[in-house]
């Protein structure tokens, strides 16, 4: 959780909810994989559960990305993970043997920074990981009354001090924004299992403030404007590839992209097929490298 | 957050949602205060914001309780605060100069214990306040697969270790119960201000598990069965006195009690009067001791 100081007045938060399409998902096969490749100029990839799990690359990813680049496709990485900057992400790709430029990376931390920038917040930041809060009589927990935005993202250092600080700013500072990088319930923060995601920290602050956040990561399409500034591709010629229905696939649908769900992350075939699921991707397959094998490349 | 081990199969969680009445609240005055006193045999008091704020007694409380006892009224204390046992609560009353027996105290921690007891859970408990979680490659975060219930209450030691432990138990242990002591968003944990309440921790676990808890504290009337076992008073001759609409007043209404809102805690007159508020107490007043002054005692 970060609190951002400002002296400007607050902007009007825009609504970013999405509408899900509900037609059936097609299993990726030789024919539709070829058609997909022909109809798309840019592939947007989620990272956790698609490119890697924790610090382990998913099988066949480097070869698949190489093949797509060799066919002139643009590659973009759109991640809700907010724990790294663009440079740190580029370094992570590098350490896994993948050559990705930082301007091909659109993370929810970047989205939050851009949201604050376009709303003219100065770049102040507080860091409270080691601070502790105690209930003491006659002792007031003081907070900075000029904090104008609280950004909540994935935070393994969540504690009661931060929760009280965020709660006071949002409840008591006039016009203070409550911004969520994303609301993913869980994610593959390590290779062997899932862990609570930013949705956990965001929900905690919703629970204490009884307010709902502005979400800047997927499924919000806020990041798309910045992506379009960089890449001269119409969204109808983009394909969003992800492992989460309620973030990746919904983001792709909200933005007007084609969508491909991979089952290498948090979503299982039974979740996809469940009658309660209304978010259906255009295509689904087990893992990214199926594109490579289906095309016989 | 506590995880409770069990080997028995899980019981069927009961639904405990309430329906709010919406008639207008009457300001307490001499006439209706007298009528209220005559029609009631037991007063049920919330504690934080009603009897005390943090460690400070609210003005006039001892004299009011003395007067009510002198008229033969039964006094019961029904609190959602889960950080203390009944004995610890009795000691807190004692330290503030109030003579209250532990069997007059019904806390949400007691409710959670009773919920587990009637559902035949053995009394095991884990304590993880000082433990830490780290995202390490090849390292599995292990959890006890026999944990059959996770109880979430107010926890100033909330951390990512506990959140991951609770999340794994609820998501992966077949039939594991998710029990919330209560969902109060904030409370007067100290005299000078409000702090995030159990609703914050409960929401965090809802956020990571995408599940809703069984709530045993107010506004659930689960505690009322135990209260009725102890006191031979019909609920229609009880008055619930509290400072929260969505817990205290709703609890009173759900149980068929009369209800009195005091404005000495988290609820303001404007919140009460707001058109969006559908929970109207029978009566409201500034503080508990108004009963005393209105009756001219």
From TrEMBL, chains A, B:
Record's cofactor remark: Divalent metal ions. Mg(2+) is the most effective.
Chain sites annotated for binding substrate: 218
Active site residues according to the UniProt entry: 46, 48
Reaction catalyzed: 2-phosphoglycolate + H2O = glycolate + phosphate
Protein EC: 3.1.3.18
SUPFAM superfamilies in the record: HAD-like
Binding positions for Mg(2+) per the UniProt entry: 46, 48, 243
InterPro entries, per the entry: HAD-like_sf, HAD-SF_hydro_IIA, HAD_sf
Gene3D superfamilies assigned to the protein according to its UniProt record, in alphabetical order: HAD superfamily/HAD-like (3.40.50.1000)
Family, per entry: Belongs to the HAD-like hydrolase superfamily.
GO MF term (any one): phosphoglycolate phosphatase activity
Lineage of source species: Eukaryota, Viridiplantae, Streptophyta, Embryophyta, Tracheophyta
Origin superkingdom: Eukaryota
Protein's organism: Gossypium raimondii
Keyword tags: Hydrolase, Magnesium, Metal-binding
GO cellular component: cytoplasm
Obligatory cofactor(s): Mg(2+)
NCBIfam families referenced in this protein's UniProt entry, alphabetically: HAD-SF-IIA (TIGR01460)
Signal sequence extent: none
Protein name as annotated: Phosphoglycolate phosphatase
């Amino acid at each position: 959780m970060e609190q951002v100081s400002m002296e400007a007045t607050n902007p009007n938060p825009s609504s970013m909810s999405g509408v899900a399409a509900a037609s059936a998902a097609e299993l990726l096969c030789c024919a539709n994989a070829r058609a997909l490749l022909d109809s798309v100029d840019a592939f947007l990839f989620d990272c956790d559960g698609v490119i890697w799990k924790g610090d382990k690359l998913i099988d066949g990813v480097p070869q698949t990305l190489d093949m797509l680049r060799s066919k002139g496709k643009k590659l973009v990485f759109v991640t809700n993970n907010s724990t790294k900057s663009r440079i740190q992400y580029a370094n992570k790709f590098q350490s896994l043997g993948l050559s990705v430029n930082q301007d091909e990376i659109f993370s929810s931390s970047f989205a939050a920074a851009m949201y604050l920038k376009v709303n003219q917040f100065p770049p102040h930041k507080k860091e409270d990981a080691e601070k502790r809060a105690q209930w003491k009589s006659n002792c007031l927990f003081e907070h900075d009354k000029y904090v104008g935005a609280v950004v909540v993202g994935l935070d393994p250092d969540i504690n009661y001090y931060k929760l009280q600080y965020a709660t006071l700013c949002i409840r008591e500072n006039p016009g203070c924004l409550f911004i969520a990088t994303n609301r993913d319930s869980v994610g593959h923060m390590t290779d062997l299992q899932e862990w609570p995601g930013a949705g956990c920290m965001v929900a905690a602050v919703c629970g204490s403030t009884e307010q709902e956040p502005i979400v800047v990561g997927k499924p919000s399409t806020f990041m798309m404007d910045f992506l379009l500034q960089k890449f001269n591709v119409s969204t109808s010629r983009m394909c969003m590839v992800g492992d989460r229905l309620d973030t990746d696939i919904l983001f792709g649908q909200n933005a007007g992209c084609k969508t491909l769900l991979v089952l290498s992350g948090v979503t299982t075939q039974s979740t996809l097929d469940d009658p309660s699921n209304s978010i259906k991707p255009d295509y689904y397959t087990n893992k990214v490298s199926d594109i490579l094998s289906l095309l016989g490349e």
